[in-house]
Specification:
Elements lengths: L1 H39 L16 H80 L5 H29 L8 E4 H18 L3 E5 L4 E4 L1 H17 L6 E8 L3 E7 L24 E2 L2 E2 L6 H11 L3 E7 L3 E9 L5
Parallel strand pairs: 2-4
Antiparallel strand pairs: 1-3, 4-5, 5-9, 6-7, 8-9
Helix pairs in contact: 1-2, 2-3, 4-5, 5-6
The structure holds adenosine-5'-diphosphate.
The site of adenosine-5'-diphosphate has 22 residues, from helix 5 and helix 6.
Length: 332
Amino acid sequence: MIKSAVGRLTFAYLAILMTLSLGFTVLLYNISMHELNQEIRQPYSYELVQPGLFLDFGRFRDYRFNEARRNLIENLVVINIGTLILGSIFSYGLAKRNIRPIEEALEAQSRFAADASHELRTPLTALQTEIEVALRDKKLNLKDAKAQLNSNLEEVIKLRTLSDRLLKLARDDEKIEIKKFELQRSVLKSINQVAPLAKNKNIKLVDNTRKMQVLGNAQHTEDCLAIILDNAIKYSPIKTKVTIESGKDKEFGFVTIVDQGSGIKPEELPYIFERFYRADHSRGKDGDVNGHGLGLSIAKNIMEAQNGYIEVISNPDKGSAFTVKLPLPRKK
Ligand code: ADP
C-alpha cells in the first residue's frame, strides 16, 4: 500500500514538473523562433561581404535559420530529458520523505493493534478455559459454581479496565478543554478512587496537599493522578505508606506521589511511559502484578494534552516519586 502510494505521489510530482518543463519549453521555443525570425529578416549589409565572394543570401539565410532551429530543438530535448531523469529521482525522494510520517503512523497503529489483541487474548483464553473446565465438571455444586463465577468476574473486570484504557489511548488526540481549576480537589477525588485498594493492602495514604489553582482539565488530571496512585499501591508491599505532596515553582503547580515500593531500575526508567511496557519487577516470581503497561502512557498523554508533564525519581527497593506538573494561571 505504502509502495503504491510512493509510486503514485512520485508520478504526480513528476507530472507537475514535466508539465511545467514542457510548458516552459514551448514558450522558450516560440520566443526564440520569433527573435530568430526578426534577426534573419534584417536587411543584410553588402559591405560585410568580401569583394568577389558570391553569396545566395536567400539560401544562406534559410540554412542559418534551420541550423539555429535544429540547435534550439536539440538543446530543449536534452534539457527535457535531463529534467525527466533528475525530476524522477527528485520526485521519488520527495514522495518518500512526505510519505514517511504516514508510514510511521500506520506502523505504530498496526503495532498497537497487535499488542492490544495480544493483551486481550491472554485473559480471554484463561476465561474460556475456566468456563470449559467448569462446564465439563459433572460434580460442580452451587458453591463451586459461585466461586467460579467470582473468578470469572474478576477476569471480566480486568478486561474492562484494559478495554477502557485501550479506548483512551486510541482517542489520545482528542481536544480537551483547558481552564483554571482547583488541583487539590482532583487529588482528593483520585485518592477516593484508590482508597479501597490501599485498604486491601493496609497501605496508608497521607495527603499533605494544599489548595492551588492550575491551568488544565480537572477530570483528566484526576484520571492521571488515579493511575499514578494505583501504581504506587500496586508496586508497594503491604503496610507501607504513600504520601501525596503539592507545591509550586515559577511556572508550574505540582503534585508528587511518593511510595515505598519496589522502585524502578535506572535502565528501565526511560521505557515506563511506552505503551505495553512493563518492568521486570511487574512480572515477579510470585506472579504478575495486575496491569498491561498502558497506565503511564495514558497518564503521559493526558498531561501533555494539558501542557503539563510527569517527572519520575526512583530508587530500586526504596520507592518512587512521580511528580505531575501543570502550568499556573497567569497573574493579571
Ligand atoms: P502497568 O499496568 O504495568 O502498571 P504502567 O504503564 O502503569 O503499566 O506502568 C509501566 C511500568 O512501570 C509498570 O509495569 C511498572 O513496572 C513500572 N511502574 C510504574 N509505577 C511504578 C511504581 N510506583 N513503582 C514501581 N514501578 C512502577
